[in-house]
Design brief:
Helices cover about 30% and strands about 25% of the residues. The protein contains 8 helices and 13 strands. It has an 8-stranded antiparallel beta sheet, covered by helices on one side. A 5-stranded antiparallel beta sheet has the order 1-10-11-12-13, with no helix packed on it.
Length: about 290
């Protein structure tokens, strides 16, 4: 039996979320507001694995994610961001379907069916340019989509970045990131994506030493024309064809960098943050000494 998705009572958590991202209540469920919500979320809540790196992976229960956003101004990674967004969109009257997804970083990895991403499909929002009315809403892809994407095959330009939806199927789609991106592509399928499946995947992804989200701190934010990342102790900014990198050897530089990406540090102690930076800097130095493989 699947685990039911919790829903915040009385819409209070949804109202708090809208305040957090700077939007009013009562938004009509149309395409224009779908874009507003997507952009406002990205501007307010970076993708990150901070709590996991501190040894306290946050719950991926969608209602818990909404509460955490209100209380500390942090969400987490894709399961947290898109789980919370699903509740918000449903509360506002959108027709939303969650989709099982696999992000891959190599051509060999494309065949994997492991659940490592939760995508959202919003339906019945027809426009002249998207008559079928299917939209991909995804605020949990780090350095990727700035706006919801119409689910139609072909190239997709957003700001200085060009993506491609290579295939659209009734139960999913195939996607290629911009060449500058942090991963290669994404396969979305009709496999089971109930909350029990998400919980199991979260356990796998956040359990040391093999969990993907337990190795390096990652903070990412996709702006209108740029993609910013702090990975361990390396800050990267991509602006079209230009790429800028800077090391973060000191705690103050590292803290400033993650806060500039919008990461809230509410509720965290300075000693634990300093210890995390020190551990990340040791890994960075070892990586550099090995030739940055």
């Amino acid at each position: 039996m699947s685990t039911p998705i919790s829903t915040p009572s009385g819409g209070a958590a949804v109202a708090a979320y809208l305040r957090c991202v700077g939007l009013p209540e009562g938004l009509a469920p149309n395409v224009e507001n779908l874009v507003r919500i997507h952009r406002a979320h990205l501007d307010a809540l970076p993708y990150e694995n901070l709590a996991t790196m501190l040894g306290r992976p946050p719950s991926v229960d969608p209602a818990a994610s909404l509460t955490r956003i209100d209380q500390v101004g942090r969400a987490g990674y894709c399961f947290h961001h898109n789980g919370a967004a699903e509740l918000v969109l449903r509360a506002l009257g959108y027709d939303v379907v969650r989709r099982h997804s696999s992000v891959y970083s190599s051509e060999e990895g494309r065949a994997s069916t492991a659940l490592n991403h939760l995508a959202l499909e919003v339906r019945r929002l027809s426009t002249e340019g998207n008559p079928e009315g299917r939209w991909w809403f995804d605020v949990g892809l780090g350095d990727c989509l700035r706006d919801p994407a119409p689910l139609m095959p072909g190239p997709l330009t957003q700001g200085a970045f060009t993506y491609e939806i290579t295939e659209v199927r009734p139960d999913g789609w195939s996607f290629r990131h911009d060449p500058s991106g942090s991963f290669l592509g994404l396969e979305v399928t009709g496999r089971s994506i109930d909350q029990a499946a998400v919980d199991a995947a979260h356990q796998r992804l956040t359990t040391p030493p093999d969990g993907d989200f337990t190795r390096l701190l990652v903070v990412q934010r996709r702006g209108e024309q740029v993609a910013d990342t702090v990975r361990g102790c390396l800050r990267t900014r991509v602006e079209g064809a230009d790429r800028y990198e800077s090391e973060l050897p000191t705690y103050d530089a590292w803290r400033d960098a993650v806060e500039q990406l919008g990461l809230s540090l509410a509720g965290l102690s300075e000693p634990e943050l300093r210890a995390l930076h020190a551990a990340q800097w040791d890994k960075h130095r070892a990586w550099t000494a090995a030739g940055r493989p």
